[in-house]
Amino acid sequence: MKKVRLIGLQEKNLHSMNNYIMALQMILDIDKDTGHLCNRIAPLVADWPRQLFIRKAITNLHKTNSQYIIPDKINSFIPILGPLHVSLNSREHVILIYYSFFEKLFHFVFGKRKVLAKKPKPWRINLLLDLAYNGWLE
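The chain above was modelled as a monomer; its predicted structure follows.
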């Protein structure tokens, strides 16, 4: 990230499409001076709920009867899922698909009284996948 400068820091609540539009508008206001987004796109790394708000804004921009006021330059932002979220989602997906196997493994290691949640926490998912992988190697 050579030659990158932080030009501002502002705390925002990002819980709705309007919040995201306001946050992106701050970037667009800076871009008026620099013109970096002219005929270019900017990837916006976000997990699924955050992507949804950005996608809604882009969709509402192209609707003819939209009730929202959305700047045209929002089209310059393309929401993408980052590698961390791809990894976390794929790990969770493996646990959910093979839940019966991982439940048996969980009970074998921690005892019958312990309950494996239907949607385990990420640290527990990592533990179970690591146990299964290392057990497979032995």
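The chain has a mean pLDDT of 89.
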